Amino acid sequence: MSDATRERGGHMDLQAGMPVDRARSEGRAVAAWPQLLPLARLMQTARRFFRSAGDLALPPTCLCCDRLVASDQALCFHCWHEMPFLAPPWCQRLGLPFAYDLGPGAVSPQAIAKPPVYDRLRAVSAYSGPARALVARLKYHDRPSVSRAMGRWMARAGDELLVMDPAGAGPPLLVPVPLHPFRNWSRRYNQAGLLAREILRARAHVEICADGLRRVRATRRQVGLDASARAKNVRGAFAVSREGALAVAGRRCVLIDDVHTTGATANAAARVLAKAGAASVDVLVFAHAGADRPLG
To answer: Count of alpha carbons within 13 Å of 183, Cβ hemisphere only?
Structure first.
């Protein structure tokens, strides 16, 4: 018997290798579990009842068109059928879909002619149809709840970007593209930040640096601007925060945004992260404006 056991005045259970008092208390706890099972079942039944009652009062609707659907955070059959989901084969750098498989590591003519600052880009869908409607609801129609489904889809689409690095660079670090403080105040949330947090929920091994980037200069809306005007508009708009400088150095960063159009925003943000010492910078978005038709 150990000195500690003697001091407590306890006895040792020689078979279990623990004090008898502790063994008895744990035995009582285990014995109490069967008595708690009916209560657990009752609580589960109550949750189902209230969920069903809520569905009757406020039935779930399609995320895009508000048609009635069977479950929350879902698309109706029509919107699902029209959703322009992207899938391999695609350009290794820009994520543009190919009409046929060109082999592993194939790169599109666009990536060869104008290589992006970032390493790889992946997207859930092309920027058309229901995907465009979802982005509009998230950004302009005060529907932050749609980010839950959008973020889950992004986690699947970005599987190869979100894997653990065997080389020792640590888990991927999600970095949302920031809004200017005034626009963030007027909108009440940053859509990229909401998407990043949903990806974090779906992929528990990744990490997030929500304030890693700052938008230090107010920019006009990118809608309606051509590629050169977009690049000029976001030039010098981003900076790495003090918190971000510590988190980004030596890490694999994954920029998170809702839409990729000309790449001006992604390139500007990736350039800042690379200068801050990021080991690599990938981009994960919900919709890709240049991916409407397969190449080839």
So the answer is: 16
Q: 3-class DSSP state for residue 288?
A: strand
Buried b / exposed e over 257-290, threshold 16 CB at 10 Å, is: bbbbbbbbbbbbbbebbbebebbbbbbbbbbbbb
Place of tokens 């194939």: 106
Cα distances from 223 to residues 151, 184, 267, 273, in angstroms, run 23, 17, 17, 25
Q: In whole angstroms, give the CA distance from residue 234 to residue 212.
A: 17
Q: Is the dihedral of CA 228, 230, 236, 242 positive or negative?
A: negative
Alpha carbon of residue 114 to chain centroid: 27
Q: Return the residue matching tokens 């322009």.
A: 84
Contact between 183 and 213 (Cβ < 8 Å): no
Nearest residue to 282 (alpha-carbon basis) of 87, 122, 70: 122
Q: Helix 191-202 to helix 129-139 angle, to the nearest 10 degrees?
A: 110
CA-based torsion, 79, 159, 144, 252: positive or negative:
negative
pTM assigned to the model: 0.80
Measure the CA–CA gap between 101 and 120, rounded to whole angstroms.
18
Which two three-digit tokens encode residue 286? 């919900």
**Which residue in this structure is represented by tokens 């626009």?**
183
Q: What sign results for the dihedral spanned by CA atoms 66, 70, 73, 75? A: negative
**Cα 273 to the center of its chain, rounded Å:** 19
CA distances (Å), origin 135, targets 172, 219, 286: 25, 20, 8
What is residue 154's predicted lDDT score, i.e. its pLDDT?
98
- Average pLDDT of the residues of the chain: 85
DSSP 107-165: --HHHHHS--SSS-EEEEEESSHHHHHHHHHHHTS--GGGHHHHHHHHHHHTGGGSS--
Instruction: Report pLDDT for 163.
Output: 92
Closest CA to 213 of 189, 245, 252: 245
